Queue: 2 jobs
Job 1
Amino acid sequence: MATALITGASSGLGAEYARQLAPAYDLILVARNEARMQSLAQSFSSGRKVKIIAADLTKAVDVERVELAVAEATDLQLLVNNAGLGTVGKFSVLDAVTEKNQVLLNVNALVALSHAALGNFSRNRPAQAALINVASVAGFQPTPFSAVYAASKAFVKTFSEGIAEEVRGDGVIVQCLCPGLTRTEFQERGHIDVSSLPDFAWMSAEEVVRISLANLSPGSGVVLVPGLLNQAMALASSAVPSALNARLMAGVMKSALNVRA
Ligand SMILES: NC(=O)c1ccc[n+]([C@@H]2O[C@H](COP(=O)([O-])OP(=O)(O)OC[C@H]3O[C@@H](n4cnc5c(N)ncnc54)[C@H](OP(=O)(O)O)[C@@H]3O)[C@@H](O)[C@H]2O)c1
């Protein structure tokens, strides 16, 4: 039976991946909030198996536990590295522990679990094998006042593009999903003021995940930016020199997210 493991499955995009994959996959759900994952699992009517792993992916010992689960999962066909955290504010005054945790969660855990999944795929050679790494449009340019988050997502994008080329001939699909503003708990958790942002700038988690899964095929390309507005922003960022991008983004962060410098 095909198995998919999803990190950050207790809310937002991760819970939505679980909902949309539940009819076709046995699931392994990973996040800290066990009760929320239990209640999500109970809402599925597919009769597929759901295993829940409560883990804090900023903690090395928990990452090792999940690495083992990925390495040993029977018929693992899909890993969704989705768990992530972002903050907004001036780096030097933001809480140091939370800034370091962003690197541990968004980067270290994702690298560890990607390695375990590719090892599983190479040993077991499942009929289909795919890795989805969730980055962000924030990864397309330096972003003052969200410097660690944007840098962590730039890492995810570059890393995913690199390993995608390495496994191109092995029948493994690598997708780097780069969403823009998506209605989840992300902004609330990061204490991000979105009151000035217009409605049209947002996508739903349901739409973003549907686009991700619809494009999980060998010819679809590695980097996937859902939504026309996000695609236009990513294209504009790629065309502008980095230093100018940083200057422009500082202005955007101050006006759109009400960040105080
Ligand atoms: N929403 C957006 O606007 C947006 C835009 C671009 C990219 N993204 C990316 O999308 C991904 C999913 O975020 P989301 O929008 O769905 O946000 P969310 O609703 O806040 O979900 C984040 C998920 O990550 C889990 N998580 C957080 N810290 C964790 C930790 N230390 N260990 C294990 N799991 C942890 C949370 O579960 P627990 O609290 O139960 O651990 C939750 O399930 C992230 O990588 C984010 O960077 C989001």
Note: Residues 240 and 253 are 17 Å apart (CA to CA).
Job 2
Amino acid sequence: MAMNPDMATTSDGAELSRLRSLTGIKWSRDPGDHLLAAWVADMDLAPAPVAVEAVQALVDRRDFGYNRHASAQLPAAFSDWQHENHGWKPDEEDLLPFSDVLHAIDMALWMHTKPGDGIVLFTPIYPPFIRAVEHGDRRLIDCPLDPDGWRLNRSTLEACIDHTTTAILMCNPHNPTGRAFDREELTAVAEVAEANDLLVISDEIWGDLTHPGATHIPFPTISAAADARSLTISAASKAFNLAGLRSAMAYVGHKDLAAQFEALPSHARGGLSTPGAESALACWTRGGPWLDEIRTHLTAQRDHLAGRLAADLPQVGFQLPEATYLMWLDLNQTGLGPDPATVIKEKAGVVLSPGEDFGHRGDGWVRLNVATSRDILDQILDRLVKLLAS
Ligand SMILES: Cc1ncc(COP(=O)(O)O)c(C=O)c1O
């Protein structure tokens, strides 16, 4: 595509040059130094310094051999972190490390459900969940959140369940809407799961990134019955910006599933990389102050985006997310058609996540990642304003 000269002008050229020199997918997947990337859920902000120091120390020591130093301490560190931040103290005995969150989800669905089983997803939904269900020939049970507030509705959930249903796969906080489900909603999930003997997989990777006024409630804290039906998975990777280092922690409250994991050949669960374990340990033990600063910035970015949308782009619909650094935007009234992300990339040079990837309810929507500098967020908005004015 020919480069639009407007797109090259930037008041923060050094930061854009740095981002464009990175090899991570966010800025390198789509070639072109006119593009602004706001799609995949990586932050443009540098990762937590404690994580960088932990990885740097490995490099300085040339310490690349088999290594259990951090991974041995990680269950205790995770349990303490959850306790201090979310009032949940998982038993270390029930924690299993995985290379990443999706790894744990795929394994659980593979072992605990069978082809033809119905798996409930709360839509619109993070695209790899759709793939996780469909790849194994499980049946996707599409349970829509209420678009007016993105609430999880008990009667909608009850109506979705049929005799084939064996699991609910949810993420809380929710990607892409940014909802942090409240006690009433999670209690509904727990009770419907109990009544229908369902496994509840609760992906809580966004749990540390709530905005002021919202609370992340770990699913196992809802009740003893919820705990005993759950696989609850988290990671340091979203909050501390470490997605490429690969590490996650799964709490297996569901005893049959725990036995299935236990019965696996010893390497089938994979394992943590040493940088993944060292960085997660550093964050969960010493990363709190950095995270506080980042959350303040992310809330300011969210509010800035919301303010500019209301002032400059009133035709764009949105609800303020309670968590995550993502904004789920309704572009159906903009005249850009059912696939606005493609039009925006071609005509404005802004790369967003296409709504259609989040299920059929996503047509006409996009997901925008605000975890960048104020200047880059403003450039993205300026381009959208110009496109929609033309
Ligand atoms: C809800 C959710 N789960 C999982 C992931 C990916 O986690 P991992 O890289 O540990 O598989 C993401 C990434 O954005 C996510 O939003």
Note: The longest strand covers residues 165-171.
